[in-house]
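dumping this here before i forget
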Amino acid sequence: MDDLKVDTIITDGYRAYPEIIESLGAKQQRYTFHVMKNLMDEINPIHTRLKRKIKNTQEKIEDLEEKLSVLKEKYQGKVGRIPKSDKKKNKK
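structure:
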């Protein structure tokens, strides 16, 4: 490997590396997998909690929509004129 030119060195971001890499005349590329994994480890519980909340809310909405449709069927309004015989609704 002595005859290979070093162009880029991948590191974990340790503070001493930039000086060493600069002295070799190479570029530094930071290894970001663990950084991303650590971020995802923090986000996943929040994401899971929100997904559960959405699912529960969706179930409540479906239940309420079902109850609403039952009430709409039960209390359908009458169409047309109010009969003259209906003294309660025909108050003037």
